[in-house]
Amino acid sequence: MIAIELIxxxxxxxxxxxxIQKVYERMVEFRVRHLPIVNEEQFLGLVSDDDMQAExxxxxxxxxxxxxxxxxxxxxxxxxxxxxxLFHERKLTVVPVLDLKQNYLGVITINAIxxxxxxxTSVSQPGGIIVLEINNxxxxxxxxxxxxxSDNAQILSSYVQTFPDSTRMEVTLKVNKQDISNIIATxxxxxxxxxxxxxxxDNNDNAKDRYDSLMNYLNL
Length: 220
Hints:
By secondary structure, the protein is α+β, with helices and mostly antiparallel strands. It has helices at about 20-30, 50-55, 80-90, 110-120, 140-150, 180-190, 200-220, and strands at about 35-40, 40-50, 75, 95-100, 105-110, 130-135, 155-160, 170-175, 195-200. The N and C termini lie far apart (about 60 Å).
């Protein structure tokens, strides 16, 4: 996915003639701490609530402020990972998107990024989660997929977390099966370090058993 596909059309930019008070109100309305300043299609910068707090007069136009953020934008064809990196490095609540001629197109919000992660990690799909700790030289997703598929299951999503000054990494797998006991047993048989697992099959089954017992008692 690229930046232009994540633009939130609902948030209008600020203009140089807008007062600090007006921009504050817009930030509160859309629950953000940053807004792009635009002159027609020209992107001038990103104003933050910190920039405005330095000015005591709320009727001052935002075009007169000194902006603390330099070039905080992505181009329309940049990958979503570049967007995420900018959110993280600059601690932003919105990221402006410009076209290839440096014209302003819109902003990407934190909510859009959250929705994107929900989609690519299949959080709405039922299934189990397996966290493996492995040596980074043994990171073979093909072999992990083979183990999962041997139990007639599939990997819905996966991601890797590395650690500074370590040759170990965590691999998190989301599979489309809630009963993952056989999959876990196979990983252990291949000497994978299963750090954690998450599924609610047992809890759900116990609740159903208690409900069925109660119904049988009431029917006596």
